[in-house]
Write a structure and sequence with these properties.
Layout (H helix, E strand, L loop, with lengths): L4 E7 L3 E8 L8 E6 L6 H12 L5 E6 L1 E4 L2 E4 L5 E3 H8 L3 E6 H8 L11 E5 L8 E7 L3 E9 L2 E7 L11 H11 L13 H14 L6 H7 L6 H9 L5 H25 L5 E3 L4 H4 L6 H8 L5 H4 L4 E4 L4 H16 L5
Parallel strand pairs: 1-4, 4-8, 10-13, 13-14
Antiparallel strand pairs: 1-2, 2-3, 5-6, 6-7, 9-14, 10-11, 11-12
Helix pairs in contact: 3-12, 4-5, 5-8, 6-7, 7-8, 8-10
Length: about 350
């Protein structure tokens, strides 16, 4: 049976973006809705809400999950949610359900991306012109996602990983002090604990103490009564009259992120480039300098010359995970003989 519409969702730690795509246009959703996860008991409740809005659901679905995916089941990393393909089929009448890691979806978006289009990407480091078979992706959101794409002999392989949970490695005195400060409250200390949304709050508290910096009255007012201080820190850093403490936090964030992006590039020899995803970084473009990120990315000793040949670009498409998931589902159905 041929399929004309797809249901896809990007199920993150904070929000779920859900959309319906026409199988002939996997770039522009026919219908889209964002759900704040804290307001729901699980994905099934969100699906029920979306079905009420859309009127009905397509017969096939792909869910890109911020967590561990084991064939037909998935476990969220930052939420107590569990997903099961069989249960979702029985509950909502799907004929096919595919679960993938959210970074697999974002990585898959790269296969159809116009990598030179300034509306699609923002170039942080131009790199060389040779290119390569392997491309890496690092995406700070509620967690720190990492993944990669391998294109070889006309075939493409994409996968997400849990690389964001690797141990944080400080590279200077400030970061060594940060590690000691973090270890008072948790061990191990991962990159995800510092360069994802919740990590900004930790960096803010650290910088305030370590550098003896005063907090901005405006930022404090913005934080008042809010559970999540992360948006206030970002707004403070990019405001017309920015908060010096928030600016220092963002720069420390970018330096640590640059180091880890460079680590991934070295480990997978990402001559095809490193792409940065997530919703936070695009907000910084044209407001914050990425010099610290570039310096940390390149600072790899005898490998620094190699690093200079690797392009680094920031994804500007806020629907990258949805587009990638839709493309992944289309390829899955094609292999099953169910595509258009």
């Amino acid at each position: 049976m041929k399929t004309t519409t797809f249901l896809v969702a990007d199920v993150g730690g904070t929000k779920t973006d859900m959309a319906i795509f026409n199988a002939l246009d996997l770039r522009t959703p026919l219908q889209y809705q964002r759900f704040i996860n804290a307001r729901y008991s699980g994905l099934e409740e969100i699906l029920g809400q979306f079905m009420a809005i859309a009127g009905s659901l397509p017969a096939v679905a792909c869910f890109a999950v911020a967590g561990i995916v084991d064939e037909n089941r998935a476990r969220m990393t930052n939420l107590p949610w569990r997903l099961d393909c069989g249960h979702l089929k029985a509950r909502f009448g799907f004929t096919s359900v595919v679960l993938i890691n959210d970074l697999t979806a974002v990585a898959n978006c790269l296969t159809s991306l116009d990598r030179d289009n300034p509306s699609e990407v923002y170039t942080i480091l131009s790199g060389g012109t040779v290119g390569g078979a392997v491309t890496g992706i690092v995406a700070p959101g509620t967690g720190l996602g990492e993944g990669y794409v391998v294109q070889l002999s006309g075939k493409t392989f994409v996968t997400g990983s849990e690389g964001g949970h690797a141990d944080f490695a400080p590279v200077d005195a400030e970061q060594m002090a940060l590690l000691s400060w973090m270890q008072k409250g948790q061990t191990p200390v991962s990159y995800e604990s510092l360069v994802a949304g919740p990590g900004l709050v930790r960096l803010y508290d650290f910088c305030k103490d370590y550098h003896s910096m005063d907090e901005s009255a405006v930022v404090l007012g913005d934080m008042a009564g809010k559970v999540d201080r992360t948006p206030s820190i970002v707004r403070g850093a990019i405001a017309p009259q920015p908060c010096p403490l928030c600016q220092r936090v963002i720069q420390l964030f970018l330096r640590i992120l640059g180091s880890e992006a460079g680590n991934l590039a070295l480990k997978i020899y990402a001559k095809g480039g490193i792409y940065l995803g997530g919703g936070l970084l695009p907000r910084l473009v044209n407001h914050v300098k990425f010099d610290g990120f570039r310096a940390s990315f390149l600072n790899k000793g005898p490998m620094s010359a190699v690093m200079a040949e690797i392009p680094v670009k920031l994804l500007l498409n806020k629907d990258a995970a949805l587009v990638g998931a839709a493309a992944y589902l289309a390829e899955f159905l094609k292999e099953k003989g169910q595509g258009l």
